[in-house]
Amino acid sequence: MKKLLSLSLAALALTAGAASAADLPNRKQAPAPYVAAPSYNWSGSYIGINAGYGFGSFSGAAGSQFKNPSNFVGGGQIGFNQQLANKVVVGVEGDFDYSGLQGKATSTGTAGSKARLDTLGTVRGRLGYAMDRVMPYITAGYAGGNEKITIPGSNNSSGWRNGYAVGAGIDYALTNNVSARVEGLYVSLENKNTAAGKVGNDLGIVRTALNYKF
Known about the structure:
By secondary structure, this protein is mainly beta.
Protein backbone atom coordinates (compact mmCIF):
# COMPACT_ATOMS: atom_id res chain seq x y z
CA MET A 1 0.00 0.00 0.00
CA LYS A 2 2.79 2.41 0.92
CA LYS A 3 4.63 1.52 -2.29
CA LEU A 4 1.52 2.20 -4.36
CA LEU A 5 1.00 5.55 -2.63
CA SER A 6 4.64 6.54 -3.26
CA LEU A 7 4.35 5.67 -6.95
CA SER A 8 1.13 7.73 -7.22
CA LEU A 9 2.73 10.79 -5.63
CA ALA A 10 5.77 10.49 -7.91
CA ALA A 11 3.54 10.31 -10.98
CA LEU A 12 1.56 13.34 -9.82
CA ALA A 13 4.76 15.33 -9.29
CA LEU A 14 6.01 14.45 -12.78
CA THR A 15 2.67 15.48 -14.32
CA ALA A 16 2.68 18.85 -12.51
CA GLY A 17 6.29 19.49 -13.59
CA ALA A 18 5.44 18.76 -17.21
CA ALA A 19 2.45 21.11 -17.08
CA SER A 20 4.57 23.90 -15.59
CA ALA A 21 7.22 23.40 -18.26
CA ALA A 22 4.57 23.64 -20.97
CA ASP A 23 3.54 27.06 -19.60
CA LEU A 24 7.08 28.48 -19.85
CA PRO A 25 7.86 30.65 -22.90
CA ASN A 26 9.72 29.02 -25.74
CA ARG A 27 13.21 30.44 -25.55
CA LYS A 28 13.88 29.50 -29.17
CA GLN A 29 10.85 31.43 -30.50
CA ALA A 30 11.93 34.53 -32.47
CA PRO A 31 10.49 37.90 -31.33
CA ALA A 32 7.83 39.53 -33.50
CA PRO A 33 9.40 41.76 -36.14
CA TYR A 34 9.31 45.55 -35.49
CA VAL A 35 6.93 47.40 -37.79
CA ALA A 36 7.47 51.16 -37.94
CA ALA A 37 4.39 53.38 -37.87
CA PRO A 38 3.64 54.83 -41.33
CA SER A 39 4.72 58.44 -41.92
CA TYR A 40 2.05 61.11 -42.12
CA ASN A 41 0.95 61.97 -45.65
CA TRP A 42 -0.06 65.57 -46.46
CA SER A 43 -1.97 64.76 -49.65
CA GLY A 44 -5.62 65.81 -49.73
CA SER A 45 -8.08 68.67 -49.65
CA TYR A 46 -8.61 70.80 -46.55
CA ILE A 47 -10.64 73.67 -45.17
CA GLY A 48 -10.00 75.85 -42.14
CA ILE A 49 -10.06 79.12 -40.26
CA ASN A 50 -7.35 81.69 -39.51
CA ALA A 51 -6.77 84.71 -37.30
CA GLY A 52 -3.88 87.10 -36.82
CA TYR A 53 -2.53 90.62 -36.91
CA GLY A 54 -1.74 92.94 -39.80
CA PHE A 55 0.49 96.01 -39.96
CA GLY A 56 2.24 98.11 -42.59
CA SER A 57 1.91 101.39 -44.45
CA PHE A 58 -0.02 103.17 -47.17
CA SER A 59 1.85 103.78 -50.41
CA GLY A 60 1.21 106.09 -53.34
CA ALA A 61 1.34 109.86 -53.65
CA ALA A 62 -1.48 110.33 -51.11
CA GLY A 63 -0.58 107.44 -48.83
CA SER A 64 1.53 109.58 -46.52
CA GLN A 65 -1.63 111.45 -45.48
CA PHE A 66 -2.65 108.47 -43.35
CA LYS A 67 -1.08 106.83 -40.31
CA ASN A 68 0.34 103.34 -40.69
CA PRO A 69 -2.52 100.81 -40.46
CA SER A 70 -2.56 97.91 -37.98
CA ASN A 71 -5.37 95.70 -36.68
CA PHE A 72 -6.91 92.24 -36.47
CA VAL A 73 -7.40 90.06 -39.56
CA GLY A 74 -9.31 86.78 -39.69
CA GLY A 75 -11.29 84.51 -41.97
CA GLY A 76 -11.10 81.15 -43.70
CA GLN A 77 -9.15 79.19 -46.28
CA ILE A 78 -9.49 76.16 -48.54
CA GLY A 79 -6.75 74.27 -50.31
CA PHE A 80 -5.21 71.09 -51.69
CA ASN A 81 -1.82 69.41 -51.14
CA GLN A 82 -0.07 66.64 -53.05
CA GLN A 83 2.89 64.90 -51.40
CA LEU A 84 5.42 63.51 -53.88
CA ALA A 85 7.65 60.46 -53.42
CA ASN A 86 10.65 62.59 -52.40
CA LYS A 87 8.64 64.21 -49.56
CA VAL A 88 8.19 67.46 -51.48
CA VAL A 89 4.65 68.81 -51.06
CA VAL A 90 3.03 71.01 -53.71
CA GLY A 91 -0.31 72.70 -53.25
CA VAL A 92 -2.63 75.61 -53.87
CA GLU A 93 -4.64 77.63 -51.35
CA GLY A 94 -7.21 80.40 -51.42
CA ASP A 95 -8.26 82.49 -48.44
CA PHE A 96 -10.56 85.40 -47.71
CA ASP A 97 -10.27 87.50 -44.55
CA TYR A 98 -12.05 90.33 -42.83
CA SER A 99 -9.57 93.14 -42.18
CA GLY A 100 -9.68 95.92 -39.64
CA LEU A 101 -6.56 97.59 -41.08
CA GLN A 102 -7.16 101.33 -40.90
CA GLY A 103 -5.16 104.52 -40.82
CA LYS A 104 -6.49 107.96 -39.91
CA ALA A 105 -5.33 111.20 -41.49
CA THR A 106 -2.16 112.75 -40.06
CA SER A 107 -2.84 116.32 -41.25
CA THR A 108 -5.11 118.69 -39.32
CA GLY A 109 -6.47 119.90 -42.65
CA THR A 110 -7.92 116.46 -43.32
CA ALA A 111 -9.19 115.70 -39.80
CA GLY A 112 -11.65 112.81 -39.73
CA SER A 113 -10.36 111.32 -42.97
CA LYS A 114 -9.35 107.68 -42.93
CA ALA A 115 -8.28 104.85 -45.22
CA ARG A 116 -9.48 101.32 -44.44
CA LEU A 117 -8.79 97.94 -46.00
CA ASP A 118 -12.07 96.09 -45.35
CA THR A 119 -11.25 92.70 -46.87
CA LEU A 120 -8.17 90.81 -48.00
CA GLY A 121 -7.93 87.64 -50.08
CA THR A 122 -5.17 85.61 -51.70
CA VAL A 123 -4.76 82.69 -54.13
CA ARG A 124 -1.28 81.19 -53.69
CA GLY A 125 0.85 78.25 -54.68
CA ARG A 126 2.65 76.43 -51.85
CA LEU A 127 5.88 74.41 -51.82
CA GLY A 128 6.77 72.44 -48.69
CA TYR A 129 8.92 69.60 -47.41
CA ALA A 130 7.31 66.85 -45.32
CA MET A 131 9.15 65.82 -42.16
CA ASP A 132 6.52 63.36 -40.99
CA ARG A 133 3.96 65.55 -39.17
CA VAL A 134 5.92 68.80 -39.59
CA MET A 135 5.95 70.68 -42.91
CA PRO A 136 7.77 73.99 -43.44
CA TYR A 137 6.74 75.74 -46.66
CA ILE A 138 7.07 78.83 -48.83
CA THR A 139 4.17 80.44 -50.67
CA ALA A 140 3.48 83.11 -53.31
CA GLY A 141 0.65 84.29 -55.52
CA TYR A 142 -2.14 86.79 -56.11
CA ALA A 143 -3.52 89.11 -53.42
CA GLY A 144 -6.39 91.56 -53.50
CA GLY A 145 -8.51 93.64 -51.16
CA ASN A 146 -11.25 96.23 -50.98
CA GLU A 147 -10.13 99.63 -49.71
CA LYS A 148 -12.38 102.51 -48.66
CA ILE A 149 -11.31 106.14 -48.36
CA THR A 150 -13.51 108.37 -46.20
CA ILE A 151 -13.11 112.19 -46.35
CA PRO A 152 -15.68 114.33 -44.48
CA GLY A 153 -17.44 116.82 -46.77
CA SER A 154 -16.16 115.07 -49.90
CA ASN A 155 -17.10 112.13 -52.05
CA ASN A 156 -15.98 108.86 -50.46
CA SER A 157 -14.43 106.24 -52.66
CA SER A 158 -13.88 102.51 -52.49
CA GLY A 159 -12.51 99.92 -54.85
CA TRP A 160 -10.70 96.63 -55.28
CA ARG A 161 -6.90 96.64 -55.19
CA ASN A 162 -4.86 93.96 -57.00
CA GLY A 163 -1.40 92.86 -55.93
CA TYR A 164 0.69 89.92 -54.76
CA ALA A 165 1.61 88.02 -51.60
CA VAL A 166 4.76 86.10 -50.64
CA GLY A 167 5.54 84.35 -47.38
CA ALA A 168 6.44 81.23 -45.42
CA GLY A 169 5.07 79.11 -42.60
CA ILE A 170 5.01 75.78 -40.78
CA ASP A 171 2.17 73.26 -40.70
CA TYR A 172 1.93 70.63 -37.93
CA ALA A 173 -0.46 67.66 -38.05
CA LEU A 174 -2.14 67.36 -34.64
CA THR A 175 -4.13 64.30 -35.75
CA ASN A 176 -4.59 62.49 -39.07
CA ASN A 177 -7.22 65.08 -40.03
CA VAL A 178 -6.48 68.26 -38.04
CA SER A 179 -3.40 70.46 -38.51
CA ALA A 180 -2.25 73.76 -37.02
CA ARG A 181 -0.23 76.50 -38.71
CA VAL A 182 1.85 79.61 -38.12
CA GLU A 183 2.32 81.81 -41.19
CA GLY A 184 3.78 85.16 -42.20
CA LEU A 185 2.90 87.01 -45.42
CA TYR A 186 4.08 90.17 -47.13
CA VAL A 187 1.27 91.74 -49.19
CA SER A 188 1.63 94.56 -51.70
CA LEU A 189 -1.46 96.14 -53.28
CA GLU A 190 -1.39 98.53 -56.23
CA ASN A 191 -1.64 102.32 -55.98
CA LYS A 192 -5.02 103.47 -57.23
CA ASN A 193 -6.83 106.78 -57.60
CA THR A 194 -9.10 107.64 -54.67
CA ALA A 195 -10.87 110.70 -53.31
CA ALA A 196 -7.60 111.55 -51.53
CA GLY A 197 -5.32 110.80 -54.49
CA LYS A 198 -3.34 107.64 -55.29
CA VAL A 199 -3.25 105.18 -52.38
CA GLY A 200 -1.88 101.62 -52.14
CA ASN A 201 -0.79 99.21 -49.41
CA ASP A 202 2.37 97.45 -48.19
CA LEU A 203 1.42 95.05 -45.42
CA GLY A 204 2.76 92.34 -43.15
CA ILE A 205 0.37 89.63 -41.95
CA VAL A 206 1.19 87.22 -39.10
CA ARG A 207 -1.50 84.62 -38.39
CA THR A 208 -2.29 81.17 -37.08
CA ALA A 209 -4.71 78.69 -38.60
CA LEU A 210 -6.49 75.38 -38.01
CA ASN A 211 -7.26 73.09 -40.97
CA TYR A 212 -9.33 69.94 -41.38
CA LYS A 213 -8.10 67.53 -44.07
CA PHE A 214 -10.62 65.30 -45.84
